[in-house]
Amino acid sequence: MGANLSSPCGVYPGTFDPPTLGHVDIIHRALGLFPRVVVGVSPNPKKGPLFDVKERIALLQEATAGLPNLTVLPFDGLMVDFARRVGGTVIVRGIRTASDMAFEFQMAMMNRRLSGGMETVFLMPGEHHTYITSSLIREVARCGGSVSGLVPPCVAARLKGERFA
Ligand code: COA
How does residue 7 score in pLDDT terms, banded at 50, 70 and 90? Predict the structure, then answer.
């Protein structure tokens, strides 16, 4: 039961379609808490993603290049199974506003039950990142607005080259 604190590893799962500076902020904070962090990228087809998993991983890797002790991997199925496979001991999720909490609380409880005790820690991004979501970024980019300063430069460049349907 509970987190294995002898060899802690944070697992940060998400859709990352696309990764934002808010996500990168959470990754930095997680690396400050855990000696090893694994980012798990879910295909999440129900969200109708703009970028495929390979591309989201490549963008995350470019946005976090040079950060030590960080791995970015795809995952399908339950996040707790993925966490176990990669030796993860704690799930990391970002909380931007109080309204994120209701859903995150349910997910954390379900994950704890499914995993037999794996804990979730919630990290808050810097306040200038609290209003960013990937859908908002996609919408602004689709309408020709600037997303610079909200996403890593590689994501801004990639969105500029995107032909939106
Ligand atoms: N900065 C900016 N945006 C952030 C953010 C941050 N720090 N933290 C979250 N967000 C945004 C995301 O961009 C995303 O925006 P969007 O809805 O517009 O796309 C939204 O908040 C939530 O995204 P994310 O944290 O990626 O979660 P998700 O709900 O898209 O993905 C999974 C959830 C993939 C982790 C979850 O569905 C999963 O694990 N599925 C596998 C099955 C499973 O195990 N389910 C849980 C059982 S309890």
Answer: confident
- Catalytic residue status for 23: yes
Tell me the C-alpha to C-alpha distance, in Å, between residue 31 and each of 103, 151, 157.
Answer: 24, 19, 26
Annotated catalytic residue 134: yes
Q: Which of 27, 28, 42 to probe ligand 1 with, by most ligand atoms within 8 A of CB?
A: 42
Average pLDDT over residues 116-135: 95
Ligand 1 atom nearest to 13, measured from its CA? 35
Q: H or E segment at 156?
A: helix 153-160
E strand or H helix that includes residue 119: strand 119-123
User: Are 62 and 68 contacting, i.e. CB atoms less than 8 angstroms apart?
Assistant: no
Q: How far is the CA of 122 from the centre of ligand 1 (A)?
A: 13
Residue 20 burial by CB count (10 A; 0-12/13-18/19+): exposed, middle or buried? buried
> How many angstroms is it from 164 CA to the middle of ligand 1?
22
Q: pLDDT tens for residues 127-162?
A: 999 999 999 999 999 999 999 999 999 999 999 988
